[in-house]
């Protein structure tokens, strides 16, 4: 029943926003809908904690330790982003960048986007997972091109075509998966259900599955932003409205990675070898290194943090690729803290860019003077994302690195260099943006930055103390992934 | 030859699909491209219904009907309307080096056939040998998207790729479960609408649908 | 070799010789109809030939022996080719002597002679035509060979008779590969017979002509033979097309009762093919000479695809 609410609320929220999105109370409704979704997700989480995993509706939906924590995370960040987007989008409207119609589109698509992500997470059907991922692309294409400027249209076009092509590969992978499963489970309903597939995974045809995994990894990997298929990501992040960048980085990439991980579980079972893991490690490592070196050449602040997202997604992919309880645990933790931190950074960056009237870093200076909260938010967020203790990112990165050092020592030089380069690039720029000299006056009203500090507080908490049920949860999920 | 007549018809359809994929690859005129796409949908529907008939799979009749409606009628109609409204009905794309493109296409076909060979040997369907052709048409549509610089042909390539994937699903497994197929069809339809809106936005912003104008965002 | 088979061979020889100009006339008539003209009638090619045979030949003063003998060689080659293709019945006594590769060789022989003869006089147009003919030929020949190989791999033989017997008289099978081969073959046919869109047989525009440029220096009986040979070549190509792609209705060995039906069916197929050719020529525009390699490249590619499809789908 909770599943029903988690999905129905954002879906109808999208329809409601399509009808009432022009009204002046639309942002409030948007937040309320997201809050309701979050409450439903929390209820679902409570139930999973008490009852364990279960399927619903003719086994079409499925909740276990792995996806329920992502559902909760998605609903939470979705809610805080809706809080952030309320003042942000209104200011954009005052600046004349958006019209009421565009806002209606924004709110409606925002809810539908949440719906598609939650559907992708909750469905038990690998085919529906694909459909939901594609739908997520479609809803965000219109969000990325919201400003209708030439560059935002270009970014959205690139996003659409690249992800469209990528996801088509994933469809082919899904077809191959179905092909292999059909022989064991029979044609029709059950052969694409993950729970059934998981039951027979050791008997699936290895040749077909390895080919299927290559297609699935390339397909969903495009959406994760893995190099060399990452080209759409910086553009879409930089040109779309900031709340959209926050949910893209914080949520969509996670959901795509979730799809990869789900596929990996099946393939590992069928192959009994480490092929899937090796592929993921390769792509992950390449993304980390590539992103780190592109980071240092960015001028646009949102672009820079978009590359940072590629780097972190690469790190997670690498962690899941290594496998084993510790690395997987670390990967899941990193997923959580990265979502929270990166969306917090985008909130702060959004305000900073809005105040400076530009996204170019050389024109953003002295935030600490003009707006202390934004300045501190950005400074702390950046420190967190760079893996400074005591934030949670430090814990997860530390775990990933120690595991890598133990099992794959040859990756250490690459990883450490990449992390070092990324650190130097981001830290130097952040320092200038936050503490640099400025002639701008202090702004009269401090912006509402509660979501930023809530996120950062959570990340800080996860760095110092992981609540036992959460740790237990991660452990269960890690055991599931293997 | 031990292939029953239905199997032969399906093979024939597969060959025609491959032929159309090559025709699309070398077609310069937008209008003809859309007509080819429509023809592709029609052949796809025919082959799906033949598969349905020979394998006694009820749900394939539905998906054949869906294909006919969506890919042979609705999507081409939308595209026709679009190019009429955008006033690019008679557009001709300048493409260089068609022979090279064709040769690359040929190499892709060989690659696809090789890749599909081990899988089709495992399949139990009467249509299994067409899997290679399905993969080849996916790759050819991909190639078409790469070589085009205008928005509408790229989208036609995208839709053609989806057709190829659909054909792969029918040939390897007698089609995906109905829920999934409906979902995919919905996605394609919605995607088409969004792209339609998109074309107008692009034209308003760039005064053209030539994607060469859209090369500002890149790493320097 | 039975007497009946010899009779059949003679019948085909005479028939192709007489039918070739008629086919040309039919195509021209169809073109006229499609282009809303009245046309000169289907018998016009005969009248042309008659007129040319009655004229006195004029030769350039530096014309060599080669120039004079070429029309006869050309005519002989084409007559032989047209007579060898089993379109009426499969037990032609001469046909086993020649397989598909040799058939292509006969066409190549004719091409070599006409090109040499065109250069023999030393005029600019002759050399230009010869060069273009060679360009088209060297691209068309591999495509044609690939088409024939596709048919050969299906029937496991390069002999035309075996191919026709496999395709026409065994159990009916749809060959997807032959679709590709058919499209490629039509393209080769257009190029080899100097039809639109590769060449236009009815103009003498120096910038575009290929075949006409080579035969500009011929007159009277020589020209008549060259033109008759061209008609025979077209007939031979159509006969190959019919034998490969629509062989149904060709009389089986020793089956005399089927012969009248076979003749009627063949006439019908030729009429249809001619009308089709006229239709293609009407709807397409002549392409620039530099686009011809692209055109022929496509034909070759399709033929190769046909072969590949055969291995994928039909084995």
Structural overview:
The complex is a heterotrimer of chains A (482), B (220) and C (315). Chain A is mainly α. Chain A has helices at residues 2-20, 26-51, 65-94, 100-122, 126-144, 150-185, 194-199, 206-224, 232-239, 242-271, 275-295, 301-322, 325-356, 367-370, 372-385, 392-407, 412-435, 450-464, 468-481, and strands spanning 54-56, 61-63. Chain B is globular and about 55 Å long. By secondary structure, chain B is an all-alpha fold. Helices cover 70% and strands 0% of the residues of chain C. Chain C has eleven helices and no strands. In chain C, helix 1 (3-34) crosses helix 3 (65-84) and helix 5 packs parallel to helix 11. Chain C is globular and about 60 Å long. The mean pLDDT of chain C is 83. The chains are: A mainly alpha (482), B mainly alpha (220), C mainly alpha (315). The B-C interface holds B 1, 3, 5, 8-9, 11-12, 14-16, 18-19, 22, 26, 98-99, 102-103, 105-106, 109-110, 113, 129-130, 132-133 and C 171, 173-174, 176-177, 179-180, 183, 293-294, 297-298, 301-302, 304-305, 308-309, 311-314.
Count the E strands of chain C: 0
| SSE pattern of chain C, N- to C-terminal | HHHHHHHHHHH
Radius of gyration of chain C: 19 Å
Rg of chain B (CA only): 18 Å
Summarize the structure.
The complex is a heterotrimer of chains A (482), B (220) and C (315). Chain A is mainly alpha-helical and 482 residues long. Chain A contains 19 helices and 2 strands.
